[in-house]
Write a structure and sequence with these properties.
Blueprint (H helix, E strand, L loop, with lengths): L4 H4 L5 H6 L8 E4 L6 H9 L5 E5 L15 E4 L6 H7 L5 E7 L4 H5 L25 H7 L2 H12 L4 H12 L7 H7 L12 H19 L1 H15 E11 L2 H13 L7 E2 L5 E2 L2 E3 L8 H6 L7 E7 L1
Parallel strand pairs: 1-2, 1-4, 2-3, 4-5
Antiparallel strand pairs: 5-9, 6-7, 8-9
Helix pairs in contact: 7-8, 7-10, 11-12
Amino acid sequence: MIVTAETYHVPVLLKESVDGLDIQPDGVYVDVTFGGGGHSREILSRLGGKGHLYSFDQDADAEKNIVSDDRFTFIRSNFRYISQWMRYYQVKKINGLLADLGVSSHHFDDETRGFSFRFDAPLDMRMNKRAGQTAADILNDYTEEQLSDVLYLYGELKNARRLAKAIVTFRSSQRIETTAHLLTALGIDDVQCSTFNVQRKKDMARLYQALRIEVNHEMDALRDMLKGTTALLDEGGRLSVITYHSLEDRIVKNIMKAGNVEGKVKQDFYGRISSPYRLIGKMIIPSKEEQEYNPRSRSAKLRIAEKI
């Protein structure tokens, strides 16, 4: 599969998310989800000669889209380590950070990565292919209770226990390595067949989401990144974040409204909420036109906040 910036990922809410940063030409900015580089290129187009952009991505495929610009630094790492990397580059404060969370178009369309149940592929799902356990490892090594917890917490599947039991029963006689194995374990013959109705597709999407989140420790990474960002943002700096499901959106809302990922509201003597952020406008969703040409955008929500 030939990967280009155009095929890797179509940026969601491109103008709205970068507008939300209120870019200062000589400022220092961070794009923690480089992907195909769409958001990064837009940020660079608004920076002056003294501005700088640091972009993160842990996927080796993303390096093929690196921008050739003296004002740009690519960091091949999980964005949860933003504090350590900014310290490494001697950056004490940043003027804005953009995050387009979730999975890129490239990951869903690359049938070798195991992110989509549309393909019979090895169940990998690692954003960083160099290390860590795969989805297959989780399916085969977790206890029934652990599997049930993952499917319920990260996939919000009401039938998590039944699914976990079916997986454990199947793996007692055969290791689950591919999409076909998993479908068989769940009693599904063909993901493309006419009987694979809308609800079942939604359930499979949630199951795959749960496995992907567990494989990549996405919730922990998001919490770490947001905590680090809150400390790094300069006064007046902007946080622009695009989310795709309720779990990550809840964490982002908490940090923007309460200043912490748990959402624990602190009040001053007069009962006013004490938070390091001020919300900028209302939540933004993609236009109907964008949702038509970029299906990935249909569940997207953009939230913007300013450090005070």
